[in-house]
């Protein structure tokens, strides 16, 4: 198999800094600390590429990682997490503005990977995001993160619950662990289906 090539191409604080080459984009969305950066690193097989933080609320900008060398080139987009209780209202507004400016009217956006912690019921801000994605007709798949922390039975139950709840309009619901790599191949299949498919119109 050809090696995967990954390059960090930049952080954006405003739409003018988003890429202009039109390559499909896969965005990682979810609460602060849910495991977005860890999933990105696990998908790309590069430790420390996206910064994993013990302290929540670490990713503040939209970070673009160009993936090429195997199949069609695309961007993985690491978005700042929402719902970190300790951020000021003004910062929450900034998050909303930045993420909304990215998600709305972004034709290259092929799929949102919507991360939710497999251990917990979806929270109100997860539900708000789900409504937003459905309202905007944005295609998304749900990844239930930190699957290694649940027993098989509990994980199967969570998957079922998510399929009839947060993920009922999703392309797929995939339990995943950045630690054991369980589910990583399945997430790759969902990504490939989105990047190789026809562009959103
Ligand atoms: P922000 O950028 O702050 O929004 O966080 P994030 O969503 O990027 O989360 P990050 O990847 O930084 O992970 C947060 C914490 O969860 C870290 O301590 C990770 O080590 C841990 N974590 C992430 N994924 C997994 C997983 O699959 N299993 C386990 N056990 N821990 C994980
Ligand atoms: Mg992060």
Descriptive notes:
The protein has 201 residues and is of the alpha/beta class. It has one domain: P-loop containing nucleotide triphosphate hydrolases (Rossmann fold). Helices cover 30% and strands 22% of the residues. The protein has helices at 36-44, 89-103, 124-135, 152-163, 184-196, and strands spanning 5-12, 25-30, 62-68, 74-78, 109-117, 140-145, 173-175. Strands 1-3-4-2-5-6-7 form a seven-stranded mixed beta sheet, with helices on both faces. Strand 6, helix 4 (152-163) and strand 7 form a beta-alpha-beta unit. The model has no long low-confidence stretch (mean pLDDT 90). Guanosine-5'-triphosphate binds next to helix 1.
Quick take:
The chain is of the alpha/beta class and about 200 residues long. It is about 30% helix and about 20% strand. Guanosine-5'-triphosphate binds next to α1.
**Which sheet architecture does the biggest sheet show?**
7 strands, mixed
Give the helix level as a range of percent: 25-40%
Q: Give me the secondary-structure category.
A: alpha/beta
DSSP helical segment count:
5
Order of SSEs:
EEHEEHEHEHEH
List keywords for this structure.
single chain, 201 residues, alpha/beta, Rossmann fold, 7-stranded mixed β-sheet, globular, binds guanosine-5'-triphosphate, binds magnesium ion
């Amino acid at each position: 198999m050809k090696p995967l090539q990954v390059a960090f191409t930049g952080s954006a604080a405003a739409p003018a800094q988003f890429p202009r080459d039109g390559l499909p984009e896969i965005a990682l969305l979810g609460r602060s600390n849910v495991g977005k950066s860890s999933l990105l690193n696990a998908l790309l097989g590069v430790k420390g590429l996206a910064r994993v933080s013990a302290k929540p609320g670490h990713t503040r900008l939209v970070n673009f990682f160009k993936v090429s060398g195997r199949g069609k080139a695309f961007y993985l987009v690491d978005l700042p997490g929402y719902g970190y209780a300790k951020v000021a209202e003004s910062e929450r507004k900034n998050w909303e503005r930045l993420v909304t400016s990215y998600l709305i009217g972004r034709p290259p956006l092929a799929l949102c990977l919507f991360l939710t912690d497999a251990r917990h019921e979806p929270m109100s801000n997860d539900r708000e995001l789900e409504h937003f994605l459905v309202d905007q007709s944005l295609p998304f798949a749900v990844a239930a993160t930190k699957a290694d922390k649940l027993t098989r039975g509990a994980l199967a139950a969570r998957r079922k619950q998510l399929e009839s709840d947060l993920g009922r309009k999703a392309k797929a619901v995939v339990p995943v662990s950045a630690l054991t790599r369980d589910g990583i191949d399945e997430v790759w299949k969902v990504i490939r289906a989105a990047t190789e498919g026809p562009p959103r119109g």
